[in-house]
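Technical annex, item 7. During the second reporting period the consortium partners agreed on a shared format for inverse folding records so that results from different sites could be compared directly. Each record opens with the tokenized structure and is followed by the designed sequence. A conforming record, contributed by the partner at site C, is shown below for reference.
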């Protein structure tokens, strides 16, 4: 009884209204990680209390439940509703951007991060995500210039933001200034609680250079933060597709399949790596199917898939081979 009275008091003090019972039930399921039941009660409360001041808070939790259930479109819809009502609040912008990155829609993510800065004001984290996602695509030079301008403005105030430094390091690498980029990344990755994105960028650099063992070390560090991130899993898969003592295409296929499952089969890059994995294990039919799905996914998203030339080359090779 006393606990219930305390809870009611907190609700009144925070929101100026009595609690919504369905949201209280939702919160209990949320804490138990029963996201299916939680989302049902969050939706029920939103239908019956559309004007409650805690609606945005409930929608944030609902969006997270939907994300965990891999219902990404619904999660994005809830976040966009919050943004439309409270455009200057950073959190929904950030969550929307990260969901779009998770499913491989990086140019969508770039636009979302850009919109966040426009609506919520200068922010090193959102600027970093804006720059990182723009760099995932070709043909977006105007966005790159805008992202760089934002980064310069942020740097003049906060020079040591780790995620922004990682994004700028990624830019250096893309421009061919590999040693400068490597130095910045090593500095960021050596810090306590370094962002997992920095380890991903460093792992990609190491993988390009053929340093498989160290690339895996960086990916393992990233996995301690986000164990099931599709990009981490697909990069791990790539490390098993390189010739040499680390070569294990069957394990690469397993990792790439998990990456595709976690992104709900919507990420062009993860589907591309799965196609490469099938090709390496000798299953050319499955490789062609996956490569075609990657091509379709790339055509559906905003912008274009950056590695589309290699994907097209793989599809051509597979089409010729399967016809034979």
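Designed sequence (site C submission):
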């Amino acid at each position: 009884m006393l606990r219930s009275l305390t809870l009611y008091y907190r609700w009144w003090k925070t929101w100026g209204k009595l609690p919504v019972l369905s949201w209280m039930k939702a919160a209990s399921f949320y804490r138990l990680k029963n996201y299916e039941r939680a989302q049902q009660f969050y939706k029920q409360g939103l239908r019956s209390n559309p004007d409650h001041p805690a609606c945005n808070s409930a929608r944030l939790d609902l969006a997270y439940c939907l994300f965990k259930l891999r219902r990404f479109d619904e999660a994005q819809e809830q976040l966009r509703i919050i943004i439309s009502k409270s455009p200057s609040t950073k959190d929904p912008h950030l969550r929307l951007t990260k969901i779009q990155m998770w499913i491989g829609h990086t140019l969508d993510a770039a636009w979302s991060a850009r919109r966040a800065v426009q609506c919520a004001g200068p922010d090193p984290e959102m600027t970093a995500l804006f720059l990182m996602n723009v760099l995932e695509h070709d043909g977006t030079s105007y966005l790159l210039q805008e992202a760089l301008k934002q980064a310069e403005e942020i740097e003049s105030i906060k020079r040591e933001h780790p995620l922004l430094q990682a994004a700028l390091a990624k830019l250096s690498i893309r421009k061919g200034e590999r040693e400068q980029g490597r130095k910045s990344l090593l500095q960021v990755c050596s810090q306590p609680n370094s962002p997992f994105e920095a380890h991903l960028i460093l792992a990609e650099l190491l993988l390009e250079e053929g340093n498989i063992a160290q690339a895996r070390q960086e990916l393992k560090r990233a996995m301690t933060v986000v164990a099931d991130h599709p990009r981490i899993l697909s990069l791990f898969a790539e490390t098993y597709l390189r010739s040499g003592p680390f070569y294990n295409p069957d394990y690469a296929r397993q990792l790439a399949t998990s990456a595709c499952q976690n992104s709900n089969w919507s990420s062009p890059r993860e589907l591309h790596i799965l196609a490469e994995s099938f090709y390496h294990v000798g299953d050319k039919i499955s490789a062609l199917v996956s490569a075609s799905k990657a091509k379709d996914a790339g055509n559906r998203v905003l912008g274009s898939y950056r590695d589309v030339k290699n994907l097209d080359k793989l599809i051509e090779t597979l089409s010729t081979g399967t016809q034979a």
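The chain has 18 helices and no strands. The first helix runs from residue 2 to 15. All partners now use this format for quarterly exchanges.
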